[in-house]
Predict the structure of site-specific DNA-methyltransferase (adenine-specific).
Amino acid sequence: MAVALELQESIKSSLQKLKNTEALKKLFWSQLNYERENKELSRRTLSDAVKNQVEGEPLLLASGGANKAFHIIYTRLKSENLSRQSERVVVNQLLQEHPYALFVFSNNSQSHWHFLNVKYDSSPQKRRLFRRITVGEGEQLRTAIDRISLLDLEKIPNASPLDIQARHDEAFDVEAVTQEFFREYRKTFEKVEGLIKWTTDSEQKRLFTQKLFNRLMFVAFIEKKGWLKFDKRTDYLSALWESYHKDGASDKNFYRDRLSHLFFVGLNNPQEHDITGINNGGFLKDLIGSVPYLNGGLFEQAEDDKNTKIIIPDECIDTILHDLFQRFAFTVTESTPLDVDVAVDPEMLGKVFEELVTGRHESGSYYTPKPIVSFMCREALKGYLKTQVANESQDAVAQFVDEHNPDNLVNPEAILEALRSVRCCDLAAGSGAYLLGMLHELLDLRQCLFATKGLDSNTVYERKLNIIENNLYGVDKDVFAVNIARLRL
């Protein structure tokens, strides 16, 4: 146990200093016990598509196992953004010469890093699943430290590349992170629920606690987008908490004095109202900083929010922020079946709602696993496209939808038009699992047509907005669930 803790502290130090390749070398050569290589891979063997994405030559940084057959390859991208598409282009070529490997990417300034594992799914096509751990400025490192420490080769120095790959696959298992987060969430939830001073109605107290958690979780996600600032800091909740504790006022309460203003005035205030200029010359900005208006309903003030007899002690917020949020990495990008961040994503908003909310069994609220969502969306799309474009063969449509390969389509223009005009409605939308799943499927298919056929030249943002506005519909009797679905979209 002491050795494991010592390794984790050592890895933490390296990740905190990860600003250049020297820190990366120390991590793999000294701490994770891989063999030194430090060899540049020739650009002459790279395709033009890869050359356009990378700065200099990819670096074979380290190797491991029998015959040094497992490789650690570092690539510095030209862009300041760690583009998933750029990484996919690079990895797909490098895998031809390095089938057993961990790929490390940085942006051009080396301020943000991706550790990328490629795992093959169980489908007949053996599709590549790209799984990432993010390290860099503003990132919580607990998840990265825990998972990267599992890559240590000290006890298996001569393992086969298959065995090392299996260890990497296990380390990048997002389900393990999700389960750990959910366990901690449940434990924290029960503690906070017990601390809140309430009336005698235990069911209403539980729903109020759930609403508090969902609001704070959503704030944590939009904080990751950089939409919230307090005193020029983008680690918004931490900055807000620290500012509150510097306030020497007596009889203060964080929920009443800060969060209620954030929820019901800042995030629930239309843009035409300048929150920095109201209430006695803009004092509100001193309390909550700069925040956007979110038209989702989650931050509308309900009757229980107005009840002054409900007391949320500071210990509740301290527990949520420090025992839960700061222990896990958050990402604003919802995972797709073939692209996963090893972190807590917005899907968790729906999962915790459908797992913990009172009466979910009675109301029929159940969480649907993502692979099932993806399968059902694809089956629906295959049936729809075959009906709409009758001259396409069933095999060509299946190849397009399942493998994102449009090469055998007779009329890709007609397929694109069918995708643009489809109407998808979930009559029991809940917190939006199927709507999000269909959004990803439609977006990927349209991007595929653009990449291979030059069709649909809109940006990813424009395509996504178009799909949300024109193709997706949903209803549900639970207003709370609908608000979560709207905000996830």
